[in-house]
Amino acid sequence: MAYYNRSSTGDNLARGLGWFSIGLGVAELMAGRTIARWMGMEDKTNLIRAYGVREITAGVGLLALGDPKPWIWSRIAGDAVDMATLVAGMEDNPRAGNARIAFGAVVAATALDVVCAQKLHQEEAYYRSLPVPDYSDRSGFPRSVSAMRGAASDAPIGEDMRTPRILQFQPAQGQTAQSQTATS
Fold first, then answer.
1. Which residues contact 10 (CB under 8 A, 6 or more apart)?
2. Which carries the bigger pLDDT value, residue 92 or residue 5?
3. Would you kindly state where each structural domain of the chain is located, as residue ranges?
4. Burial level of 82, CB count in 10 A (0-12/13-18/19+)?
5. Distances (CA, A) of 95 to 32, 41, 85
6. Which of 42, 59, 96, 153 has its CA 20 to 30 A from that of 52?
7. If 0-12 CB within 10 Å is exposed, 13-18 middle and 19+ buried, where does residue 96 land?
8. Residues 6+ apart with CB under 8 A from 41
9. Does the pTM of the predicted model rise above 0.85?
10. What does 52-98 look like in DSSP terms, one character per residue?
11. How far apart are CA 139 and CA 31, in angstroms?
12. On the CB side of 60, how many CA atoms lie within 13 Å of its CA?
């Protein structure tokens, strides 16, 4: 079971990274060709667009209610793939300087992702260290179960809580006459 607090420092950072991830993903998806051209990696346009879809997915996962740790780790893995792509794209590239700038930005984002993952894991460890509350002595009743048994048996039932007359069982008219002759 995951322990997390939706208002903690780690979770706030995760949500900020989620919005960043969605923004970056939309940029990669919509302007993939422009980004690829800027880095001198025109042959990687479709790959950059696919990375945009990955970023949007991670961002939505981070913003959804639930444990953000798997989504932060998916961002870290995606950053590693991004860095490998950028390193491969720097070879024999006249715009290698731009690819290096992009590499530096990915390294910075990865550092934030790692800090966020560490913070989330520290917070989970803290919540796991708290004692589990013991409610075994509680029944949910204001008095003991034996004192409550039958307490409402004499309570009046309001008209709105009764079965409507149209839904009540009513014997057929012929049956009532037969049952009267049979009893007499």
1. 4, 68, 116, 119, 120, 122, 123
2. 92
3. 9-128
4. buried
5. 16, 8, 15
6. 96
7. middle
8. 48, 85, 89, 93, 99
9. no
10. HHHHHHHHHHHHSSS--HHHHHHHHHHHHHHHHHHHHHTTT-TTHHH
11. 60
12. 7
Which range is most confident: 74-78, 131-135, 146-150, 180-184? 74-78
Residue given tokens 């949500």 in the structure block: 15
Length of the chain, in residues: 184
Residue 44's nearest CA partner among 93, 77, 79 is 93
Query: Which residue bears the tokens 């690819």?
Result: 99
Distance CA(49)–CA(33), nearest Å, equals 8
- Give every CB contact of residue 51 below 8 A, 6+ residues apart in sequence: 25, 28, 78, 81, 82, 85
- Of 12-26, 52-66, 157-171, the least confident: 157-171
Per residue in 107-156, pLDDT (tens digit) is: 999 999 999 999 999 998 988 888 988 888 887 778 887 888 887 888 88
* C-alpha distances out from residue 82 to 19, 91, 106, 155, 161, Å: 19, 15, 7, 70, 64
> What pLDDT, on the 0 to 100 scale, is given for residue 1?
45
Cβ atoms of 52 and 29 closer than 8 Å: yes
